[in-house]
Design a protein that fits this description.
Elements (H helix, E strand, L loop, with lengths): L4 E5 L5 E5 L6 E4 L2 H19 L2
Antiparallel strand pairs: 1-2, 2-3
Organism: Luteolibacter arcticus
Protein name: Type II toxin-antitoxin system HicB family antitoxin
Pfam families: UPF0150 (PF21748)
Length: 52
Amino acid sequence: MRLKAIIHEAEEGGFWAEVAALPGCFTQGETLEEVDVNLHEAIEGWLLVAEL
């Protein structure tokens, strides 16, 4: 499955990201690499909860 994530620079530093196709699926990180890892975890968690 492919999902589009939008990554934003946070005002206080670092980044935050959202997945528009999954309402409420957000994450953040200090680096783009950290946001990428966190996005995978956030999407996986969102999909697991959605199955319940």
